[in-house]
Amino acid sequence: MTNSPFFSIIIPTYNRAHVIRRAIDSVLTQDFDDYELIVVDDGSTDDTEQLIAGLESDKITYIKQSNQGVCAARNHGAEKARGKYLVFLDSDDFLSLNYLLNYYCNLNNSKFRLALGDIIWCDKNGLVLECVNARMNEVFFTQPLSGSFAIDSKLFKIVGGYDLNLTYSETSDLFISIYIRNLINLEEVIIVSNAGVHIEKVNRRARRTKYAEKHYLSTKYFLKKHTEYFSMYPGSYINYQKILSVSALLNNNYKEAKNITLFLVKNNPYNIKYYLQYLLVCIFPYFLKKYYSKL
Fold first, then answer.
1. Which of 1-10, 12-21, 72-81, 183-192 has the lowest mean pLDDT?
2. Which of 170, 200, 230 is the last residue of a domain?
3. Coil, helix or strand for 190?
4. pLDDT in tens, 262-292
């Protein structure tokens, strides 16, 4: 390993000893080896520490911190990273076999500061269900998820890392902050083909219920923080208002859910779905909440 590896792969984890080995192995088995792997344990109480200690690889740096959340764990890993580019990989996801080599070929000796790759949805056995290819648009991202991008470490530091106030849309927040502050331009962004992150499609019902309040507060914060961006892209504002209306409903904030849905109706007068949702939230909010909690 060189003093300054090309990539620093950062895996934040919390009580994921049962799945993190797959994520780690997807890095250690790459054909490209100019990297370091940093595992940031966010206060796990399971066997994560023992599992990492049992891995014989000088590529791995293990960091243990008190439980502070995934954004704090990612930022901590970035602070310790020595690589030119950072890759944030969630502990229940894994990289495609050719990930590092493909990204390296696109980034080496280039002006690019951000590389965007595929998001590959799979089942619990790793069977591919759907592949979402990265696409370029005016704000250089369409569906940013951890593991699908590599970012210049200096750029990440300049933007200030992940916002610790967020537990939802934290990567969208990172990209919007870069865009609004004009920290890079489209000529510094590259699309990487045939490589990306594998993410398991799971039933998110239990997680949605468990973190309903955090999701709600995070969405309200996100909307308030990025008023400038949403004034430029009203379509995105509508999409996040839809998210907020459901979050409010799941938190028993029926009045707010009603008001937001009325706003959606007024701004989308030809969308029958919004009229129906408004009617249901006015008359049967409990049943509408039950419906969304099962999605």
1. 1-10
2. 200
3. strand
4. 999 999 999 999 999 999 999 999 888 888 8
CA-nearest of 208, 142, 140, 225 to 178 is: 140
Range of the domain at 264: 205-293
pLDDT at 2: 47
Radius of gyration, alpha carbons of the chain: 20
Distance of alpha carbon 241 from its chain centroid, rounded? Answer: 19
294 has pLDDT over 90: no
Q: Which amino acid is at 116?
A: L
| Partners of residue 63 on adjacent β-strands | 40
Kindly state whether residues 214 and 164 are assigned to the same domain: no
Separation of alpha carbons 199 and 173, rounded Å: 20
Statement to judge: residues 85 and 32 lie in one domain: yes
For residue 83, the tally of other CB atoms under 10 A from its CB is 22
CA distance 253 to 245: 9
pLDDT digits (tens, 9 = 90+) for 111-156: 999 999 999 999 988 899 999 998 877 776 666 899 999 999 999 9
Residues 72 and 167: their CA atoms lie apart, in Å, by 10
Instruction: Identify the helix (H) or strand (E) that includes residue 194.
Output: strand 189-200
Contact 113, 190 (CB under 8 A): no
> How many whole angstroms separate alpha carbon 50 and alpha carbon 39?
13
User: Domain boundary residue among 138, 170, 200?
Assistant: 200
What's the full length of the chain, in residues? 295
Same domain (yes/no): 65, 101: yes
**Strand, coil or helix: what is 76?**
helix
